[in-house]
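Input record (one chain):
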Amino acid sequence: MSDTAIRDHARRALEGHAWHEAYEHFTTLAEREALTAQDLEGLGEAAWWSAHPEESIDAFTRACAAYEAEGNPRRAAFVALRLAFEYADRIDSALWNGWVHRANRSLADQPESVEHGYLELALARASFERGAPDEGAQHVDNAHAIGERFNDGNLIALGRALQGASLVLASQIERGLALVDEGALQAVSGELDPYAAGSVYCITIGVCRSVADYRRAAEWTEAASRWCERQAITAFPGVCRVQRAEIKRLHGDLSEAEDEARRAVTELMAFGRMPQAGAASYEVGEVRLRLGDLDGAQEAFERAHELGHEPHPGLALVHLARGQGRAARASVATALADATDPLDRARLLAARVEIALASHDVADARQAADEIRALASTVDTRMLHAIAHQALGATLTHEGDAQGAIVELRDAVRHWIDLDAPFEAAQARRWLSVAYRSAGDEGSAAMELRAAAAAFQRLDARIETDRCEELLRAGSEAGRRVTRTFMFTDIVGSTDLIQTIGDEAWEDILRWHDETLLTLVGSHGGEAVHGTGDGLFASFAEPAAAIECAVAIQRRLADHRRRNGFAPKVRIGLHEGSATVFGDDYAGLDVHEAARVGALAQGGEILATESTGAAGSQPHPWADAREVALKGISEPVRVVTIDWRAG
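The corresponding structure, as predicted from the sequence alone:
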């Protein structure tokens, strides 16, 4: 076949979006050294859509030089800008900047053209990335105006979508979303070139996610999927699969979500888009976490981090599920330090609530819940309201306000159902069951638990299913108000100790510590409620038993230190009060007070509220009575130190 015939076949295939066929024909021309500038651009396009990214970059680079040699600066600039955007998506800043300047130079002496509009889009992106939104919005307006003057549909749609994104960024959400929708409609209606259409879709999903409008995102994702099928496009790298995976995961299609995310990781890494590949790996982790595969989730979250994507709150919640509360708390605090996107921040804060409540730090949970509520009042979306209601409801349950918790959690369930988010709705139902039991409504509690357990079972969410079934087995025992003496222990300086002796030796010490404390709690008639990572939460029927156990713990540690040269320093806090039973845990402000007393103690010290010490300190005297302020407790509290060396 002649070069002319091959070229004709290649160009027809390209026009018909037969990407692989076009790629093969253009490659044949390349082997014969018969490619024109237009052919090189065609090869770049075909290679890109048929998943040969490096060959695409090479062909576009050669096409730009060939257009310049042919004296076609406008087309050279267009290809240079295509390369610029590709390098921008790869986070290759120097190459992105270089190609933008090259395009600018090519167009410097040219009359206004469509290519000037694309240059304005590149300048807009640069402005937005350096934190100059007003300047960026002006460049977007310029691009849109040029598109309208030259009746270029691609440029008009891109400009319109970016105008909408700028308005959303400026908190003009409804006006912005209307423009984004208009641009997206042009994209999925087949009016645009594939690359422009995919870019508009990328902008659309990004804007929807920024305001937590997942219903809108799902509608456009479905429309975009149909568009991809019509255009013979398997994926738009960096966009389609990651967003589809996130939406499928939200809607409970966990298997399909993981498949999409895993394919996205492979495709995106091939295109050199590592942060986006990290986002895809994070989605794999979210699915594995829901399924109860903690090892698989941790591996995926850590891979996301390696690729440049934030691994939290997912990884922090894995730490929490493993009983590593301190690591979970520290991870979320670090991630929150520079989280500015409202939805990302709300998700981190929701994890902070869960982690704080697990360690009975109600004050920290309340602070995080209040911040989520403030975010939801600023960015008025159903998802943020769902997160806010659930966080506040869970916190109110621990604060002992059952009726207030019921109101918040019922709203959370309704919002999650409206969002078609079955996993989150089931989580809210589980919390709601706890609130109902605290209010003495066992019938409603059991009904919510059965609904939650059924939903988790359908999703194959093993850990969550087990939690619901455990609460169902607890029956009317859960929700009872009881009076107990609560003990919190904690190893002091554990982080420094790990760094000094290493992980393996630390695990041996922690194992001995846990076995010792569990044995002593049991022998003193106590109940080991759960571990706290480096310590233990336990409860006792009477203050005297709790104090005797605390003294025995400190004496056992001191004896081991004398005989073996080392034992970790442990602080212990005690407080008698009332709490609500739910499952194998307790909730209430008195539990929180006990935890705060424990946090105030020093290594080797037993600190108790004065009323607790007075009720059960004999034959162990107490001293150093003083008034202290405890985080989350409105009034000062009097505490004493139990002298475990005496008696």
